[in-house]
Design goal:
The complex is a heterodimer of chains A (126) and B (207).
Chain A (H helix, E strand, L loop, with lengths): L1 H11 L17 H9 L1 H11 L4 E2 H8 L3 H13 L3 E8 L2 E8 L1 H23 L1
Antiparallel strand pairs in A: 1-3, 2-3
Helix pairs in contact in A: 1-5, 2-6
Chain B lengths: L14 H29 L2 H19 L4 H29 L7 H26 L6 H17 L5 H17 L6 H23 L3
Helix pairs in contact in B: 2-3, 2-7, 4-5, 5-6, 6-7
The chains are: A alpha+beta (126), B mainly alpha (207).
Chain lengths: 126, 207
């Protein structure tokens, strides 16, 4: 279920720069950036981690108002891209998963923000 | 009847560009809102709470040595003025470290929710003092402080409203306890609870 949702989101989040006449060239890895970060939940995870040293799985779940499965799927995609790092531990008998943003993830978010700002400038100037 | 078509003064941007612009704006707004919401996790300073807790324990000890209730009350009132100053300093420092605006959306909501019970507390302190009901003041303080923390904590992590409920419980205990226990209860609540909740907040939520 969650995987289907994620796949649907991926399909929806195709590169919005396609076909637009931007004055500022898009970043070289715009395709990859869009696939990984453009999807709402993943964008939310990265944005939330950008203003916190780390957040637990339950914090992110509450913040994003999503299900365990959906959050796991999207967090794993970001983890595989090394945009976020995951630490698993135990608090007593309870497993605790903690996420933090990596340097690569922070750079990707900054590129994404530049990307969006360039898009807004370009469409406003026309 | 057919209406005359109106021609815009400036040509509209192509629908595709307008849509892209809107989506980009929407994405930026989403990022900002998420950062603000996530920022509320770090707005309250755990170390500030620990500092206030230590101060409260010291104040409880000094106040218990006073011979008149008025002197004790004055010492607690001085601490009530000093504590928000400490907390504001700690929150500003924490916000600077996290490079977050202090009064972002959730931070502003916290202040707006927390402030009214504090104003009511100040007014009731004056009224109760004038009515000679000084022994009721600790319970009222704890209840209203807890109310403020619960209300403000609705926009924060769960640990904050839980702390507020503990203060309210301490307030109920203070209201129905002998007046001689008031300093111990105030010290245990304002001291113990701030330290007990401040340390995990500081460790888990960035200071």
């Amino acid at each position: 279920m969650a995987k289907n949702g994620a796949a649907r989101d991926d399909a929806r989040s195709q590169n919005p720069m396609k076909g637009s006449a931007l004055k500022k060239p898009a970043p070289k890895n715009a395709e990859e950036l869009d696939r990984l970060i453009h999807e709402r939940l993943r964008l939310g995870i990265v944005s939330a981690l950008a203003v916190n040293d780390s957040l637990s799985f339950s914090d992110l779940k509450k913040l994003m108002n999503t299900t365990d499965g959906n959050l796991s799927v999207h967090a794993r995609k970001l983890e595989e891209a090394e945009y976020i790092a995951c630490t698993k531990s135990f608090e007593g008998r309870m497993p605790k998963t903690q996420y933090r943003l990596t340097a690569a993830g922070r750079r990707a978010l900054e590129r994404y923000l530049d990307h969006m700002e360039a898009l807004i400038r370009a469409t406003r100037d026309r | 009847m057919r209406m005359t078509s109106v021609r815009p003064l400036r040509p509209e941007p192509p629908r595709e560009l307008s849509s892209l612009h809107g989506r980009a704006m929407d994405n930026l707004a989403f990022i900002r809102n998420t950062m603000e919401a996530a920022g509320s996790f770090t707005a309250v300073s755990g170390w500030g709470m620990v500092a206030i807790g230590v101060l409260a324990i010291a104040v409880a000890f000094v106040a218990s040595l006073q011979k008149t209730p008025i002197n004790s009350l004055n010492i607690w009132l001085a601490a009530a003025v000093l504590s928000p100053t400490i907390m504001m300093w700690a929150m500003v420092r924490k916000a600077k470290t996290a490079k977050m605006p202090l009064l972002s959306g959730p931070g502003r909501k916290f202040v707006l929710s927390f402030s009214p019970p504090m104003v009511v507390g100040a007014l009731l302190t004056f009224v109760l003092y004038r009515a000679g009901l000084v022994e009721a003041i600790p319970g009222v303080w704890l209840l209203l402080y807890g109310t403020g923390v619960v209300a403000g904590g609705a926009f924060s992590v769960r640990i904050v409203p839980v702390m507020g409920l503990c203060f309210m419980l301490a307030g109920v205990i203070a209201l129905f306890s002998p007046p001689s226990w008031s300093h111990a209860i105030l010290g245990a609540a304002f001291g113990g609870l701030h330290i007990a909740f401040g340390i995990p907040i500081a460790r888990s939520y960035g200071g």
